[in-house]
């Protein structure tokens, strides 16, 4: 079986590509390398180009004859999406639609989409289930939700089977220390903490007056390898003659506050972590915790790295040995 992994040089996409290849899939990575890293592809075949290039996409699908698409290629930083919304709509939504059109024209039967908990906006209840109302509060979340809508219409019109995986907070690194998180600039909490610990820089904490036990935001952290495993299981579940459309939340079902994560990271690294507290960021929910009961029940998904200390420890193994990320 052959799978095309768009954004396969990025953080989650590269881990998923490696997981599938080790599970016996023939993997082809499609990436523009605007934000991905060549070192993250680990020698897998690469089609270099942009998902906005219709001719390029047609050539790739004709040449590779893949059985499935896993779509990770997207801009992800929420604040950036507010500052430059057109950029996100062009890349994430228009590019996604062009990829979807090319996949449908090529007769690809299965499509797995990297979505986000950001489609829920400010959920009224936690843990958040797949039935919770979608009400994104920034362009990034809107582009993800709108592409999910396009997938559902494609299922009805063309018989495409799809799964949309809504991640909560992806974190951690490959346990062998050879792959990890290297965004530029980095907006995710755990790598910011670990980089701050190594460099002696202050780590910004946005908001200390939320209605949570210690006043800081609470998030559900999910290990990147567990996300990769969920993609493989989703591909298997989409096999068969009847077109399916599925949505799954992916998280560990337990939340940790910013202060708790900083405290755990300090213990794991053995380094002091300087903190600078500031005002809330617009649009940050107080608590975001997933219900992943559906993924466990339907896919048989069982996270291997559910403990927050294990997640931070794998991230530390990567960052402490790759002080310049993939640039080292």
Helices and strands in order:
Layout: E1 2-6, H1 11-22, E2 26-31, E3 46-48, H2 54-64, E4 68-71, H3 78-83, H4 85-105, E5 110-116, H5 139-158, E6 161-167, E7 169-171, H6 189-199, E8 203-206, E9 218-219, E10 221-223, H7 224-237, E11 245-250, E12 256-257, H8 258-269, E13 275-278, E14 287-288, H9 293-299, H10 308-321
Helix pairs in contact: 1-7, 2-4, 4-5, 6-8, 6-10, 8-10
Could you please describe the fold and organization of this structure?
By secondary structure, the chain is α/β, with parallel strands linked by helices. It has two domains: 2-171 and 221-250, Rossmann fold (3-Layer(aba) Sandwich), CATH 3.40.50.720; 189-219 and 254-288 and 306-327, UDP-galactose 4-epimerase, domain 1 (Alpha-Beta Complex). The protein is 39% helix and 18% strand. The protein is built from ten helices and 14 strands. It has helices at 11-22, 54-64, 78-83, 85-105, 139-158, 189-199, 224-237, 258-269, 293-299, 308-321; strands at 2-6, 26-31, 46-48, 68-71, 110-116, 161-167, 169-171, 203-206, 218-219, 221-223, 245-250, 256-257, 275-278, 287-288. The chain has a seven-stranded parallel sheet, with helices on both faces. Helix 6 packs across helix 8 (258-269), helix 6 (189-199) crosses helix 10 (308-321) and helix 8 packs across helix 10 (308-321). The longest helix is centred in the first third of the chain and has 21 residues, at 85-105. The chain is globular and about 55 Å long. The mean pLDDT is 96.
What attributes characterize this protein structure?
three-stranded mixed sheet; alpha/beta; UDP-galactose 4-epimerase, domain 1; 2 domains; 14 strands
């Amino acid at each position: 079986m052959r799978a095309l992994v768009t954004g396969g040089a990025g953080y989650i996409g590269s881990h998923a590509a490696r997981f599938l290849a080790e599970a016996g899939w023939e993997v082809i990575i499609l990436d523009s390398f605007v934000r991905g890293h060549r070192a993250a592809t680990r020698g897998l075949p690469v089609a270099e180009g942009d998902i906005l290039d219709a001719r390029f996409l047609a050539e790739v699908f004709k040449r590779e004859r893949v059985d499935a698409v896993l779509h990770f290629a997207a801009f992800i930083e929420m604040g950036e999406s507010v500052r430059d919304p057109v950029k996100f709509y062009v890349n994430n939504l228009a590019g996604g639609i062009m990829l979807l059109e090319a996949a449908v024209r090529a007769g690809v039967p299965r499509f797995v989409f990297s979505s986000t908990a950001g489609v829920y906006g400010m959920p009224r209840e936690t843990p958040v289930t797949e039935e919770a109302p979608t009400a994104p509060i920034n362009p990034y979340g809107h582009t993800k939700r709108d592409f999910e809508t396009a997938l559902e219409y494609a299922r009805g019109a063309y018989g495409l089977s799809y799964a949309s995986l809504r991640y909560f907070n992806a974190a951690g690194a490959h346990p062998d220390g050879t792959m990890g998180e290297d965004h530029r600039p980095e907006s995710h909490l755990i790598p910011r903490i670990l980089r701050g610990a190594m460099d002696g820089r202050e780590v910004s904490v946005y908001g200390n007056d939320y209605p949570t036990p210690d006043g800081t935001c609470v998030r559900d952290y999910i290990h990147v390898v567990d996300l990769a495993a969920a993609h493989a299981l989703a591909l298997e579940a989409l096999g068969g003659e009847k077109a399916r459309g599925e949505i799954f939340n992916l998280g560990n079902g337990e939340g940790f506050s910013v202060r708790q994560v900083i405290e755990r990271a300090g213990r794991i690294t053995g380094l002091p972590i300087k903190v600078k507290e500031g005002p809330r960021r617009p649009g940050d929910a107080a608590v975001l915790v997933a219900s992943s009961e559906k993924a466990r029940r339907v896919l048989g998904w069982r996270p291997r790295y559910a403990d927050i200390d294990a997640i931070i420890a794998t991230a530390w193994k990567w960052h402490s040995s790759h002080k310049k990320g993939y640039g080292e």
